[in-house]
Amino acid sequence: MPTAIVTGASRGLGAATADALAARGFDLVVDARDRAALTAAAHRWTDAASVRVVPGDVSDPNHRRDLMAAATTTGRLDVLINNASTLGPSPRPPLREASVAALRRVLEVNVLAPLALIQASLEPLAAASGAVVNVTSDVATDAVAGWGGYATSKAALEHLTAVLAVEEPAVDVYTVDPGDLRTAMHQAAFPDEDISDRPEPQTAVPALLAVIDRRPPSGRYRVDDLLTATGGAA
User: What is the pTM for the complete model shown?
Assistant: First the structure.
């Protein structure tokens, strides 16, 4: 059976993506910082797939080793989805007031941890002609006040992904921008706003599946564009 690692799988886009992959018969290796939420989410998948639950923080090298050890027990790795992310402080400060320590934490989680997981998984991914999907954001390409720290991390992740696509032709490497979704992180970014008008995370999943299934050229893709191109279906 194909195997996927999905980070940040306890809720939001990560959980919705794991739902869809389990329904397709993927073996899953999932992580999140919230052990209880991750365990609860995993109960939805066990009837349809083999699930290895590895709670922890992707910025912790020991946790990443545990995650990769769980993945290698399946004998193959087809997809790595780097979805785990951190917003940083909320309310979001302007850069002139940004804490360097807080920004360091954002970069550790959003850039360095995905890179470390990619480095650890390249060999099995290449053996399976697999794919890396790094979840990004529209603020990676747009200059928006108050988003300096998070945007910097996602811009770095996008450039890192582009370079990997050149260096590692045996693996398909993507960044996917889901746009605004109704998630806990998005609510934290706008603590005083009603975000109920944003789409639910599962609406973006067909676009991620389209990338995994159809394997367009490595690069950056927007969910809205992918849904338009596929008629809203994977």
Answer: 0.94
The β-bridge relationship of strands 219-222 and 51-53 is unpaired
3-230 in CATH: which number?
3.40.50.720
150, 201, 207, 212: the catalytic one is: 150
Query: What pLDDT does 232 receive?
Result: 67
Per the prediction, the chain carries an average pLDDT of: 93
174 is catalytic: no
Burial of 214 per CB tally in 10 Å (0-12, 13-18, 19+): exposed
Q: How far apart are CA 4 and CA 29, in angstroms?
A: 6
Could you list the beta-strand ranges (E) of the chain. Answer: 3-6, 27-30, 51-53, 79-82, 131-135, 172-177, 219-222
The residue ranking higher by pLDDT, 20 or 48, is: 20
Domain ranges, ordered by start, for the chain: 3-230
CB atoms within 10 A of CB 223: 23
Measure the CA–CA gap between 108 and 136, rounded to whole angstroms: 15
Strand partners, 175: 134, 220
